[in-house]
What does this fold into?
Amino acid sequence: MGNDFSNIPRGFNAYFHPEITPGPTEEPTFDPQLGFPKERKERVMIATEEEMRSAKLPLEDRDYCAHLLINFLACRKDNWPWVVKCEHEKHEYLNCRHDDYVIRMKEYERERRLRVKSQKDGAVAA
Amino acid sequence: MSRKLPSGDWNKDYKPGPFPKTDAERIAAAEKYGLPIEEYEPYPDDGQGCGDYPKLPMISGEAKDPFYPWDNPELKRNFNEPMHAEFDLMREDRYDVSAKLRRPMWFYWLQYLGTMSVCIGIYYLCENVKMFPAVTPRQYPNKTHYTFELKD
It folds into this structure.
């Protein structure tokens, strides 16, 4: 998932060039459909609020992978202490988290490039 | 053993006598602790309760010659030698009151404050340039999010 050392100059960029470097807590600001030839698919939430509450999932885990986490935890409970039988469920869940992280990385890079582009366009117009 | 020794079986027997006021009392106290009268000097009578116990020079065990044939080499002490009132704090395994520093004290303070100020300075300089991974915050279904796949 990238080189961790490349995170160091990003801290300096976010301080000295905040207009082209999104910070770690900033949401994307551009239109999500901007620049795509067709509409993008929406992300689908499969687990319902009721299910997540019933499984007592921590609030930070109630994301788009929650249904796989519920599956994994239920499998662990059913097979305890032979939890190695749940390797399949665990792998599915971690794959989902990986794909989620990749989407967030792509969103960050898209936001950064659009900021650079809008800066350049503004400079040309001025 | 010609000299009368301060000896006893219980803690009340180890207790020093009252503070010497007259010359006769001083001579008797010096005789009691086995010191020549010129070297005998009691602790000041300030309520600490040292009485007529002699105020001996502060020499810790580390400062005494290890090659001298002491009668009691473990404590570097001769037979009948009067013990310092704070002897238990100046033994070889305790504090070395006669230690000599290798360098002056301001040098050590300069070393310490220099190291600490460099560390704290780096901390404050880098306070606003913290590294972070290149990802947006975690996505939760409280608003619409999109994948990077396109609709057919």
